[in-house]
Amino acid sequence: DRAGSISTLDSLDFARYSDDGNRETDERVAVLEFELRKAKETIQALRANLTQAAENEVPLQERKNYKSSPEIQEPIRPLEKRALNFLVNEFLLKNSYKLTSITFSDENHDQDFELWDDVGLNIPKPPDLLQLYRDFGNHHVTARDVVDVSVGVEDDELEAATPILGSVPVFETAPQSIEQCLIVQKLEDQISVLNSEKWSLMEQIQRLESEIDFLKNENFAVSTVYGVAPHPPLKQVPLSVSEDNGRYLDIKSSENDSKPGTAEETSFSSSAEVDSRTKDDTLNSVPCKETKKLSSSAQSTNAVVHFDKPNRKLSPAFHQALLSFCRMSADSRLGSEVSRIADSEKSVMLMLGRCLPHIVPNVLLAKREELIPLILCTACLHPEPKERDQLLHILFNLIKRPDDEQRQMILTGCVAFARHVGPTRVEAELLPQCWEQINHKYPERRLLVAESCGALAPYLPKEIRSSLVLSMLQQMLMEDKADLVREAVIKSLGIIMGYIDDSDKYQQGFELLLSALGDPSERVVSATHQVFLPAYAAWTTELGNLQFHLIPTLLNKIEKLLREGEHGLDEHKLHMYLSALQSLIPSLFALVLQNAPFTSKAKLQGEVPQIEVTRFPRPISPLQDVAIIIGSREQLAVLLQLYDYQLEHEGTTGWETLLWVVNQLLPQLIEIVGKINVASTACVHEFSRFFWRLCRTFGKIFTNAKVKPQFQEILRLSEENIDSTAGNGVLTKATVPIYATGVLTCYIQ
């Protein structure tokens, strides 16, 4: 094409600039659209032909052979094979079996697993394998209905009897061959004959029942007084046989069986055995007015519902045909549920267990927490372990990425469930749900796992707390990349430390503490100081390890850092260990008070002295509040009064914990301070804060009597020593600034 800039008169397309030119373009577009539409129709027709061809590859005669001998398995058709291959590959990908999926794709190189159209073109894609498996239970053929022997129905006749509601499996594809249509027609004829027989037999049954009712009502009161259950009716109306032992009312059978003109009344009775719990239940749907009329003694397992009989002489078949015009759908899953009314707690639970998995996916994500009470109650009370497991799985997967409020709601539900069912079921049913999601791709879900480990800790068997749950949390702390998840893990570890009583796990707890303190995230370190460290310190105190292992080990680590860091001190690690020591000061002071000579005299009597607001430094967490560690503010006030009096008047004789602080802890700390170079401003600042906090916690009398003298002893230099090496050593190290800022300014502003 020529460029626009060098267009000549003979090369110009005048049609392009005229009205006729525009019309030509429009016509061309219309033609192309028509051709495209025709091409699409051709493709659709070819798809239909191709699918039909694939479907009919098995010869007709062979199919007849398989149908006449159902025990012979019909070989898989190409279409079925491709569909199953597609679903299997989809399942493998969804569940992270990527290598298996790749191998599977290689073995089926003639199939494109990306497009469903490659399978059947105009066939709709079925649900995934998991959904098909879960839905399988809804399509099984139930057991035969029981018929009274005296009626004389033959076994082979019973096979072809009218299908009771819920016993007909739902088939998605209609029979296509003429032969099948003929068989269906023949069966339908048989059904109608048997139906007419059924109604005539029902009339006889109901006449007998009306006589029984009269006799039963006469001796009913007597039998209940002596605790004897009344005789069941001679013949019960056949109800649908279901998993819950038939304890359902079947609305469809009530409408078919109690035709006006067939009998005076129809009796519905459940086939379940008499149970002590059901004596309090009003079974079956007895209307409110009827219920009020019934005396308390008449509420037994057999309740009778009466319907008025019109004075007409229509045949049962006519009534059946007439009622068929009522538009009801009881042959679907939902129709089956709607047409059955639960008549006991157990059957309500079974119904909820069946319905909830279908309800949950259709509820808006933002409103799904509204389903939590329903899911929990059903999971608590459902008799089937498999169904309970499915419901708890739904609970943990209720919301794709649960926010903070939604997680709180789920956790509240888990705790309520745990309180209700006890430790064994919590271990068997709830913990596996946590374990499954420990490596979930969404951090919100892993967060839910971490939080639930802590929330469920009080309700688990103690050996599980100190083994499985501790291991789960340790794994998440070491492997999880999300700061929020590790923060939640630390808080849960703190709760576990408050419940653990296996002293063998002490060392594992210490290693977890060091990992948590060294975490790169500020959030995690902060949570460690607020929750994990105080909880671990409380357990350490109980084991007697606070002053003999935990504090000495941290001090030794600081000394080691200073020895190794002559040419370059690792200030991050020093801060890590020193901040841990600082967080342990309240626990140490509480231990000193609890092991004091005066503890036995500390009684809450009369006027309790007030603690000054500024007596203690502000704690960073309630778990670091000395009053909470001791038990109450009043108890602490009494102990503080005796503590000050003891130090001022009686000294530290026989007070082993305080003597350890004075004779071992303080000298070691002052020795460490003497090794720090005065130029390491960060270290000087850290130690100043530590000493300030120590002095404020232990009090003014202790600071003046025990801390200051130990510093002054080192700093007492004679004039001739000032220029010597010893003098220079003291003045060039951090002792003076730390003493000045950490100890002297503590009570002198």
Automatic annotation (TrEMBL):
Name assigned to this protein: LisH domain and HEAT repeat-containing protein KIAA1468
Classification via InterPro entries: ARM-like, ARM-type_fold, LisH, RELCH
Biased composition, class Low complexity, residue ranges: 263-273
Parts forming coiled coils: 22-56, 184-218
Alphabetized UniProt keyword annotations: Coiled coil
Gene3D superfamilies per the UniProt record, alphabetical: Leucine-rich Repeat Variant (1.25.10.10)
GO annotations of cellular component type: recycling endosome; trans-Golgi network
SMART domains: LisH
GO biological process entries: intracellular cholesterol transport
Region of interest (Disordered), residue spans: 250-294
